[in-house]
Fold this protein.
Amino acid sequence: MTDFNVNLRQVKNVSIIDLRGYLDAHTAPELENIFNKLLEQKKFRVVVNFNDLNYISSAGLGVFMAYIEIMRQNNGDIKFTNLKENVYNIFDLLGFPLLYEFYKDEQEAINKFITQENS
Amino acid sequence: MNEINKKFEKHLTVKSTTENLIKVREFARTAAEECLFHEEDVEKIVLAVDEACTNIIKHAYNYSPEGIIDISIFVDNNKFVISIVDNGESFNPNIVPEPDIREFYKQKKVGGLGMYLMKKLMDEVKYSTVSDNKNQVMLIKYLYR
């Protein structure tokens, strides 16, 4: 039993991935499955809500790195929201904030997609 | 505290499966807490140990679940030392380049992140070959004085 859960929901034309628990080399494949599903459905606008995620290792970070480019090539993105400080610090150590968008809450990220769409 | 620390020594042996990463993290956390590290440093130690074991599972044992990972944690000379030994494929840490996040992003290259994180999280990281051609990585965090 691993304490990890990933849930997918839709808000307008943005896909929201909710993460809970511990994202490591053991649980990262579950997240990959979700991204593969999104690609199959041609859903490229993704917000990942980290509100209930307590832990991330490089195996988890690698999943986002593997998929963000293809999302962007299709006019989408992966945006990151609601990170706990300890989890954000790991992204920060690796320089992710230079390349990826982080928001305090989910709605901000969704709004960003909507603004980009209208511009 | 120093007297206690001289005797501080713990061991854990696990098979090389990602399922065991939870066990490894709990083991590292308990030891770090017993040595009175603050939560922020406890989390760094736990992540570094996870990264080291993940690398061993992936690269040294190539995901074979039958490999052995031997972890010892001890205190030596005001240093909190985690020794992780495996007898899988050896590698030369010097040929793994420091990751450039922009290049990674372009090329979707993920390898090397774990090694880079370990260096950032710990005070010292040392790779060596020990008896019977086993690989050892030592993760070191200085104790508070």
Remarks:
- Residues 45 and 134 of chain B are 23 Å apart (CA to CA).
